[in-house]
Design brief:
This is Metaxin glutathione S-transferase domain-containing protein. The protein is α+β, with helices and mostly antiparallel strands and about 260 residues long. Helices cover about 60% and strands about 5% of the residues. The chain folds into 2 domains: about 90 residues, Glutaredoxin (3-Layer(aba) Sandwich); about 150 residues, Glutathione S-transferase Yfyf (Class Pi), Chain A, domain 2 (Up-down Bundle), CATH 1.20.1050.10.
Length: about 260
């Protein structure tokens, strides 16, 4: 297994090369397999790369999670270098002197990191809770989609393994025993904080879109457009029109389409 030092040196060497045109972004199959939190993170990375005007091609793989160096999706392959998750991909891109935050001062960068951490620690965890800890959602959506690309009985084994992994994480974060109402309150508090920070501006910072906008887009767009047995998360998000406007703006400006879901 490569050491962290070797991984860091490889990333630094890869960052010194120009951005090629055949970059691949690997993720699970979108229609039949991908789940709410993974879809959100994949969309966030796509939005970030588009904001940076960087070319890439989406490559769906049934075993994308197993292929990833961190065990999480998405990940990108740039020539011989592989980098996973938004934080790592942002760092890789920044190493090529491409940055969406170079005009921000230190206080703004600190705010950006704080709000990104808030999203990861609240919105994403709530998505995991919904998918794996809400019985109705698990039985009708999660177990079907997560196991869809595997034959029986491997599909059941994969579901059991993943559920055990997520439940362990929820317990560590003290979310496993939360009621659904408590989860909703956490999400609402997070959306309220994001709404206040956005303050009716086009983006979170006047200087333009950043990886924070990309991350918010990924999660809120996915919550708003993913069919689930419960619609409570989408109802919470819809209480904040400025956040909805942000999602619409990014979809139109960077994905060149306007959704019918809003």
């Amino acid at each position: 297994m490569p050491s962290p030092l070797i991984d860091r040196i490889s990333i630094e060497l890869g960052a010194q090369e120009p951005w090629p045109k055949d970059v691949k972004l690997f993720q699970p199959y979108e229609v039949e397999q991908i789940l709410l939190p993974d879809n959100a993170n994949c969309l966030a990375v796509q939005a970030f790369l588009k904001m940076c005007n960087l070319e890439f091609q989406v490559e769906p793989r049934a075993n994308a999670e197993d292929m990833s160096p961190t065990g999480k999706v998405p990940f990108i392959k740039v020539v011989r270098f592989v980098t996973a998750e938004l934080e790592g991909i942002v760092q890789f891109v920044n190493g090529k002197d491409i940055s969406l935050t170079d005009k921000l001062d230190n206080e703004q960068k600190s705010d950006l990191r704080a709000y990104m951490s808030l999203i990861k620690n609240v919105i994403e965890v709530a998505e995991l809770y919904y998918c794996w800890n809400d019985r109705e959602t698990y039985n009708e959506v999660t177990s079907v989609r997560n196991g869809s690309v595997y034959p029986w009985p491997l599909n059941h084994i994969k579901n059991i393994e993943k559920k055990h992994q997520v439940v362990k994480k929820l317990k560590v974060l003290d979310w496993y025993h939360k009621t659904i109402e408590e989860v909703h309150q956490e999400v609402q508090s997070c959306c309220e904080a994001l709404n206040v920070r956005l303050d009716n501006k086009p983006y979170f910072f006047a200087e333009g879109p950043t990886e924070l906008d990309a991350l918010v887009f990924g999660h809120l767009f996915t919550i708003l457009t993913t069919p689930l047995t419960r619609k409570d998360l989408a109802k919470i998000v819809r209480r904040y029109p400025p956040l909805i406007d942000l999602v619409k703006r990014i979809e139109i400006d960077y994905f060149k389409k306007e959704s019918e879901h809003f």
